[in-house]
Amino acid sequence: MSSGKPLLSTSEPSSATSPHHRRHSSLTIGSLGRLCHNTSISSSVTDGSQHSNLSDHNDELEDELEEFDEDISPLGGALRNSVECPAYLRTRKKFKPVDLQLQLPLPERKLLVSWGGVTDPQHVWSMREVSGASSQAVSSGIQDYLNKSQRSERFLQISMQLKENLTHHDNPRLIHINDPKRTNDNFEYSGNEIRTSKYTFLNFLPKNLFIQFHRVAYLYFLAIAALNQLPPLAVFGRTVSLVPLLFVLTVTAVKDGYEDWRRHRSDRNENNREALVLQSGKFHPKRWKKLQSGEVVKICSDETIPCDMVLLNTSDPSGIAYIQTMNLDGESNLKTRYARQETNKLVLDGTIISGVITCEQPNRNIYEFTANLEIKGQRYPLSQSNIILRGCQLKNTEWAIGVVVYAGKDTKAMLNSAMSPAKRSRLETYMNRETFWLSVFLLIMCLVVAIGMGLWLNTHKNQLDTLPYYRKIYFDKKKFGEKYKYYGIPMETFFSFLSSIIVFQIMIPISLYITMELVRLGQSYFMIGDRHMYDSSSDSRFQCRSLNINEDLGQIRYVFSDKTGTLTENKMEFRKASVWGKQYGSTLSVDGTGDTNVGAEAVLEGRRTWKLKSEITPDSELLKLLHNDLSGDERIAAQEFFLTLAACNTVIPIATQSPSSSDTDSTLRASYGIVDYQGESPDEQALVAAASAYGYTLYERTSGHIVVDVNGEKLRLVVLGLHEFDSVRKRMSVVIRFPNDSVKVLVKGADTSMFSILKRDHPDDNHTKHATQSHLNEYSSEGLRTLVVASRDLTGEELVEWQSTYEDASTSLTDRSIKLRQTAALIECDLTLLGATAIEDKLQEGVPEAIESLRQAGIKVWVLTGDKQETAISIGLSCKLLTADMEQIIINGTSESECRKFLCDAKAKYCVKSANSCDQISVWRQNTESDYLEIPLGTKLSSLQQQHAGQEEGASFGPLALIIDGNSLVYILEKDLESELFDLATSCKVVLCCRVAPLQKAGIVDLIKCRSDDMTLAIGDGANDVSMIQMADVGVGICGQEGRQAVMASDFAMGQFRFLKRLLLVHGHWNYQRIGYLVLYNFYRNAVFVLMLFWYILYTAFSTTSALTDWSSVFYSVLYTSLPTIVVGILDKDLSHKTLLKYPKLYSAGYRQESYNMSLFWITMLDMLWQSLVLFYVPLFTYRDSTIDIWSMGSLWTIAVVILVNMHLAMDIQRWVVITHISLWGSISITYSCMVVLDSIPVFPNYGTIYHLAKTPAYWLSILLIVVVGLLPRFIFKVLQQIFWPSDIQIAREAEIMSKRRHFFGSKPDRISS
After folding, report:
1. Where is this region: Disordered (predicted)?
2. Which among 69-73, 98-102, 433-437 has the top mean pLDDT?
3. In 10 A of CB 523, how many CB atoms?
4. Bridge partners of 657?
């Protein structure tokens, strides 16, 4: 134990420490200047992205470790610690001793660093345990060396390291408080006016066109339109040729212009808001856009912060301000910010503040701020807890005063306003492949026409004066005798080639791009409106944040999921505790009630003055231990245990008084106070609430102290410093002074980082450690989240040394977080183990069912979590990710060779082959077709062979599950073991990665993306999932308890994991089927039109003339056939949502690419070739003996091709609704109407043709014959396929139709009889 007397004892300050502490009183230096020899290597000073300023390192070792150290910070720091050479501890010659203020009495020494200035907020948002290198191994040779180091050398070395570069920073920003003129004259900082719009009135047209023409297809059509302007190549009218491109550009420009106008309006409203600015000693209103750096601004309650400001004073005497950062990061919990006590007192005294803030240059990190404040020659540190950012709101604080440090575009909110990386759909990339082949067809047709023209001209070169189309002399009256501009056969052949490109230009469908955008927009509308994906608990509906990848939802093969907050609720409940080696919590009943707990509550009833807003039922045995009158180590440990839970946190207590519920005893004791807690971590809130339930209620927090109610007695604790949780140390500590002037450091953290910094070589400590370790394993196996709690006393000398070092680290402008970690290592050692906590994080509703459905669909679900391996396995079993029949492959390597051995042994044992193409296909088929859920009315014939192969391959083993930890991934992902991991992981049904860091999550996703063609989806709810979400093909964010960083970085967002089932199996399937068919149909629709023109040109001496009017060619894609395509792309459904959810296996059609592949493309092109021949030759043979003119034939071809492609579409529509009928038949009606209008204009050459044609039976017979003959092969093929080779979807659709018929005919007699 760290103290031999009760906590509330009024004994002398440094009265006795326990014998255990005396045994280790001769402190030694760690490899990086640490106080204790057994400090955890995870508290290394080195950070992955930065290097410490420590000198005398071996350069060669530095070079060898640098690359490995950059990405894996915990391990890199550990390795660097282990290779320090003795020369490291030599004092530099230039070093000058620093005044340590040792001559001052400890109570009188001025506390320069308040609680508000010590945070290292880089990982504030990640309070969960994250993985890093193991902290269990420090070599004995290094330990022997460290134990010989002298204390004075250690302290001088650390002081030198932290003092060096104290005021140096690359181009620091200087802010003169209340002197904006001086601040901005020297540096010209950005004003506070913001502009989120892209365009201005002057640059809109050129800039928008420049952005639009990034699409290569638009450049293609621009070149076509330009060619058509040349006289020799003017096939169409020069104006008409520009219409399609201008239409698409105009529609996009109008959309972009409207969106930008809304941005301008929003910017104008934002910039013209007003704030109170200090001018001539008084606060006057001033528009936001005129605010400048250096000005002092006053913010009132519920107002929005206009710029990034350092707090100087608040309405709270202790300088606390509460802010809500929802507009910045989406988190609704209140957060505390603090004004420095020095500035707070000056403002309260009425003193005009003048000083200088030296801060870092603007950056995007909203969780970190590094600066110093200089007032009256004194320098004070500033951190993220002293700054309030633009976009936040002031809450529960009457007013706050601050000085502007960043304004306008320099604010962190504006620097973070960039959108997440744009993603492109997989199907769209495949579409480029087919576009290439269409371009080849286009060039071949143009070459045929050009070569044909050259040969024809050469054959008839002597007759060119008299032959139509090529005669050299005009015969009309106006130009009689004049010669045509004839350029010779070679040039005429070349011009024919270019003219053919213009005629056949719509072979590449320009309308497809805008059609796909409109279809995706419509699909998103229905996904957002799906009431089955609305989460009532969080009042959040589904969000489509990206419209480019809707169809990718139907092709997902791998789902990478976070655990906490994604599979679980992230609503923590304190369940069990291990205190001083003894377990408590077994008396807690499931419903929180029980006879034993009634008596336990009575123990506290007479002493308690505070109650939780949400009550927790405590363990009766633990309550008796805390409140009996016996003394002893176990009771003292229990008291320190709960005091640590109450004090070592950043939770905000919100206390409200309420009268006593009983009138009889209200005169005997004070009324109860109701306290509630708000914090950035659900874990911390649960632990503080648990401490309150056991009589240790935190009810007041200021910048310099906290107040804890201990069983009715007020305990005021001075906070000397706080080292926040970070992913390198994986723990948190607070240094507090008790009323009796004793000083303790209270620590909590992950077991991997805590056990290595405990006291060693004492029987009591070893017994407690082993018992606690056993309890931790038990908790983890139950799926509970664990933390270890420890403490130690600090002597006066240790405190002075730590404070001096801490002050230097917290005021450093360079590598502050690294130096604070180094400083934390000075006191986070030789700890006394108090116990461990177990918190339950329940599964979300519907998670097991969702995972089971995804697995039946052939989707592999991988869980990537920062939790312990045992916890992750327990959650995996409860959510049905792991099953009892699975063979578990566990890889926990501590070196590259060990990881290689584990991987190779597993591959050999389970007969896993290297992932060449054949093996990949075999594994893919096995995992796809195994556990197939049969559907009625048929069997999938194509899967029988694959099922049989899968059964043979896995006959001797059950399904495989790979479980691997983050430490192993350090070696695997950085070395040449990725292929081994890929082979093994893809052979497993389940992969569970434990203790993984955020970048490792992204690395796992990238492993699958780079080595396979499978589509990946990542889903998470926290900021540590952002890299994984952005790396995956599709990123899904959960609107959870950890803020909205994941949502803001995602492509889609929803409230619960269970909605992923409907998103993929229903909407993903529909979207993929629709878009796949849409693309193929657009290729077919335009190609059949072009081929029809091609056959005509072959019959007109390769002259590139057209029988169709220019307007008919333009309107074909834009007006005549576009509407039905859009409606079908949005509304068509091959199967109902009930069928898709009932038979998840139907989803496999997506990642098998059954709706869009090269085979379908070539089949469609063959069908298109037949239909184009029918289109051309049926009218030709029908009117071969007539005197019909060319324009009449063109009019017939126009209406025939429109009816044909619409009937083609009608054959494939699965779901007929009213709007489908209107669009399809309305499209044909619009075509007739336009033709009537165009044929009624006398200046057009086709004047009156439709009126003459419509009177003849041959006209209508030709159209009917074209449709029947053209679609007959397609109809026969579809019938034969559905009868003899039905797909899963066709079988399911037939079952669905039969079920409806049985229901209809079965219920009709009932309705009649009733």
Report:
1. 1-25, 40-73
2. 433-437
3. 23
4. 673
Among residues 760, 776, 804, 614, the alpha carbon closest in space to that of 40 is found at 760
Residue 100: strand, helix, or coil = coil
Three-state SS at 677? strand
Query: Residue 316, annotated ligand binder?
Result: no
Residue 714 β-bridge partners = 709
Which amino acid does the sequence have at 588? Answer: L
Sheet with 582-584, side-by-side order of all strands: 582-584, 568-579, 832-843, 785-794, 743-749, 731-737, 713-723, 705-710, 696-701
The SS3 assignment for 575 reads strand
256 is in an annotated binding site: no
Question: How many residues make up the chain in this entry?
Answer: 1314
- For the ranges 88-97, 231-240, 435-444, 962-971, the lowest mean pLDDT is seen at 88-97
| From 562, 619, 709, 983, the catalytic residue | 562
One-letter-per-residue 3-state SS of 260-300: HHHHHHHHHHHHCCEEEEEECCEEEEEEHHHCCCCCEEEEE
Q: Which DSSP state fits 1065? A: I
Read off the tokens for 751: 């077991």
Summarised one tens digit per residue, pLDDT across range 198-217 is 888 888 999 888 888 876 66
Give the model's pLDDT for residue 784. 84
Beta-bridge partners for 1017:
559, 1034
Q: State the burial class of residue 939 (Cβ atoms within 10 Å of its Cβ: 0-12, 13-18, 19+).
A: middle
- The answer on pLDDT for 851 being more than 90 is yes
**DSSP labels for 333-346?**
SEEEEE--HHHHHH
Cβ neighbors of 998 (< 8 A, separation 6 or more) are 130, 1024, 1025, 1026, 1027, 1028
Which helix or strand (DSSP H or E) is residue 210 part of?
helix 204-212
| Phi (first) and psi of residue 97, to 5 degrees | -55, 145
Structure-block tokens of residue 1258: 């041959």
Residue 308: how many CB atoms within 10 A of its CB? 28
Strand 308-314's sheet: what is its strand order?
282-287, 274-279, 296-300, 399-406, 308-314, 387-388
Cross-strand pairs, 285: 276
Q: What is the mean pLDDT of residues 552-580?
A: 89
pLDDT at 975: 67
Query: Do residues 296 and 402 lie in contact, with contact meaning Cβ atoms separated by under 8 Å?
Result: yes
Distance (Å, whole) CA 861 – CA 848: 12
1121 marked as binding residue: no
Who contacts 921 (Cβ-Cβ below 8 Å, separation ≥6)? Answer: none
Confidence of residue 62 (pLDDT cuts 50, 70, 90): very low
At a CB cut-off of 8 Å and minimum separation 6, what does 34 contact? Answer: 43, 154, 822, 825, 826, 829
d(CA 410, CA 306): 12
- Residues in CB range of 28: below 8 A, 6 or more apart: 35, 36, 37, 146, 147, 149, 151, 154
Would you say 384 and 119 are in contact if contact means Cβ atoms under 8 Å apart? yes
Predicted TM-score (pTM) above 0.90: no
Q: How far apart are CA 813 and CA 1230, in angstroms?
A: 71
- Residue 697 and residue 612: Cα distance in Å, rounded? 9
Q: Is 725 annotated as a binding residue?
A: yes
pLDDT above 70 for 575: yes
Angle, vertex CA 437, rays to CA 431 and CA 441, nearest 5: 140
562 in catalytic set: yes
Q: CA 727 to CA 1000: how far, in whole Å?
A: 13
* Angstrom distance (rounded) from CA 247 to CA 1259: 33
Average pLDDT over residues 709-730: 87
Token output for 1028? 């994984």
Q: How many CB atoms lie within 10 A of CB 477?
A: 6
User: Per-residue confidence at 401, pLDDT binned at 50, 70, 90?
Assistant: very high
260 labelled ligand-binding: no
